[in-house]
Amino acid sequence: MSADDGRPTQVDRSPSPRADVCVVGAGVAGGLVAHSLATTGLDVVVLEAGPRFEFDSRIERMERALRPDKDHQSVWDMGGERDEFTSSGPWYYGLNGTRVKGVGGTTLHWSGYTPRFHEKDFEMRSRYGLASDWPLEYSDLQSYYADAETELGVAGAADDPFAPPREQELPLPPFPTGPADSLYVEACSDLGITLHSAPQARNSEAYDGRSPCVGYGTCIPVCPSGAKYSGDVHVRKAEEAGARVVDRAPVQSLEHDDAGETVEAAVYNTPDATGLRQEARYFVLAGGAVEIPRLLLSSTSETYPDGLANSSGLVGNYFMEHPMVSIRGTIPKPDGQEPTFWWPLESNQFYDHEDATPGSIKLEFKQESPTEPTDALSGFDSPAGDLADPLAGDDLSVEDDPEWDTWQLWINALVEQLPRERNRVALDESKTDDHGNPVPDVSLHVGEREVETLRHAVDIGTRILESAGATDIEVTDPENPNSSSHHMGTTRMGEDPTESVVNPQLRTHDLDNLFVSSSSVFVTGGAMNPTLTIAALSLRLADHIAGLE
Fold first, then answer.
1. Domains of the chain by range and CATH?
2. Any long-range contacts for 425-430 (C-beta under 8 Å, 24+ apart)?
3. Three-class secondary structure of residue 470 per DSSP
4. I want to staple 363 with a disulfide (CB 3.0 to 4.6 A). Which of 124, 146, 347, 465 is the partner?
């Protein structure tokens, strides 16, 4: 028996007997926490709102991504009443294009970058008088960063002179550079800019039972080979260690005891039932910086009329992103191999700034032919135009098109966004999802400091491409930047219960057995991709919970 979408419905999604730990969300955070705790012998149940995606479906999903008549968000079945949202802020935030609901989570379509945060990211108040300091230092996470790099399988080299201290080499060697990367190296050398390899959770050689990268070039939105890490890797490991994973079981609310001191159950729905209750001794929320505050704000009671764990009134506030600009120029097609690998170079030279403004900038470098599908997803028009449909089976006859004798050089610049209380995830009571619950409303503003930093990044990137001999240079608008799909903030960490939602051990201030494992706990966001820090915090949390036994 199957549902309308072809998925089997005869799956036991009934609650388990009272578990030791209930994890809500089966992405990278939930997978790592569940696996770590299951290996200690704890009884772990994972509730995931979305479905399991069969690995064999990835080729078909890649075809969806390549075809111009397909909606990008449909690759991982996002959209519809299930995923309704509102974006009420001046910076429109297309939420469904930046997340995946399902086993593996948003790492199913992420870029794979895994840099560490720098020491200054934890010390913004102390160094610059801006934002707040984390209640942790870089040194508190240093060993967990190393563990996370091993668990995810990070490729790269210790060649970044601007990187924070590290204790061991990365587990995989860096990816080779392509034939046009020498143009970047020469141009940056002339300008006094240092390039280095980009750490990536993508196999440069076989690792952890997964193949090396074979160069499909569709990392965003899908890796057909499985060489790029995604959270389902550790979800499978968790199940092998004894954890139970229940898919298509969206949690609707959390119920607490009479005293309002502990969570007793997660109430979840299934395709054929409503209002099931999973009880546990500990609960870990790992559903991301949008769905976690939404769940907490939806879990109201007489004790918590403004939402669970929200005595500070800050649940959902201080939402952060990484505003991004892209600089692109054209060069003649160089001799040698076709470009296959994903952004192998970066520069953090403009990250650890001396002054408060401009903020941190992370530069990413890529070479690309006009046939690559990522053109259509970039915000620029594809130079291949209507010809870019390699799966249509038509005779494209492009040999004489001069645009196919050129390549593009790309520079992406991610910049730091300061946490501001008005940037938030709230509930839109006027719109509901398929379960009748208010949908998340994302309200996001880009401040003048961010715009100034973005302008500085455009200037740097333009000078690099000019020095590399590129022509027809295009830039995206610093005042209307792209987003990096990095959701952060909304349940911020701190010592003071009136100024934060969770403590340094990631336990909510209000409830003794409720923890949060997510970038939602970030106090500041820096300009580094957040996934490795999410992974490090998740491994640290798992150690903490195991130590409570």
1. 15-82+101-155+220-315+487-549 (3.50.50.60), 157-198+323-386+399-415+447-480 (3.30.410)
2. 425/289, 425/290, 425/293, 425/294, 425/316, 425/319, 425/490, 426/297, 426/316, 427/294, 427/297, 427/298, 428/85, 428/86, 428/88
3. coil
4. 347
The set of catalytic residues is: 486
Average pLDDT by stretches of 10, the chain with 549 residues: 48 95 98 98 98 95 83 87 94 90 96 97 98 98 98 97 95 88 94 97 96 88 95 98 98 97 98 92 98 98 97 98 97 68 87 95 86 43 31 40 74 97 97 96 96 98 97 96 95 98 98 98 98 98 96
End-to-end alpha carbon distance in the chain: 42
Integer Cα distance of 23 and 11 in angstroms: 19
Q: Which amino acid is present at 520?
A: S
Query: For residues 250 and 58, is the Cβ–Cβ distance under 8 A?
Result: no
CA distance 29 to 104: 10
The predicted pLDDT at position 98 comes to 83
Question: How far is it, in rounded angstroms, from Cα 127 to Cα 308?
Answer: 34
502 vs 509: CA distance, rounded Å: 5
Q: What token pair was written down for 214?
A: 């074979």
Closest by Cα among 452, 461, 450, 471 to 413: 461
Helix segments in 67-137, DSSP class H: 124-128
User: What pTM did the predictor assign?
Assistant: 0.93
